[in-house]
Amino acid sequence: MNDNILPKETVMLDKFASDLNLEMLYAGRGIITLTSISVDRPGLRLAGFFNYFDNERIMVIGLTEHEYMRSFSSEQCKEKITRLFECGEIPCVIFSRDLPVLPEFMEGARNSGTPVFRSGKMTTSVMADLFVYLNRLLAPAVTVHGVLMDVFGVGIMLTGNSGVGKSEVAMELIKRGHRLVADDSVLVKRIENELVGTAPERIRYFMELRGIGIINVKNMYGAGSVLGEKTVELIMELEPWRRDKEYDRIGGEQNEEDILGVKVPKLVVPVSPGRNLAVLTEVAARNYRLKSMGYDAAQELIQRTIGR
To answer: Of 66, 80, 118, 166, which residue is the catalytic one?
Structure first.
């Protein structure tokens, strides 16, 4: 995926250091602005090759770069480092292996306001952590009106117009031992080829029930009733029962919804008095699991009928 279509994220230094278990050596400009999922090791830049240099990438200094800088006199080292920082506003620099920061490098970081961190991990481990972190942080995202639940390990997103009963179904599922991920507003990110849903921070674990008001599901039902994030595997769209509409009664229709370029299986479930939608959601989750393992009850029934 092209870096330039990824969103821009600004991260506070203490959160960045905490998320990646880093030691902060110099705060610099006080924030980190991230736009690229790629990470740079500046060996070629220190050697004087600046073609294709992207200053929007986090820079990682490993043992190779560190020893290369040490091989020069203080004046030569300072010249190389100065030229490196003059190429643009680098988000931050991370030293791996608990390497000591050369005075010439710290001077260049201070002159440019570039934050400097240090990790005790090997260079490859630091870069692997950054790859996972940046892919999640800068993943394409969209907000979907709905409720995301973890039902028997399946991420089911309930959608439909306001007032159709999504939150009430979710409440019944929570009482039955399933877990809430997000209510009303689901933040969906595409990470690789999967859709991962979570709740916006300000409304996480809160739920609105008409006639009751706002409740905190985690405080009311305990930590086991909620989940921070979940892969969106199935969509159930709830709609009021329409007599003039033919609904799928066999399960042969393969409806899908496209979210951020990923197609998700979709069921349209009519809502009418007397229908236990929580039980139907559980059945949908179990049936999805069976289909994932290769068993399709509708196909078996059709084969039995044809075989007669």
So the answer is: 166
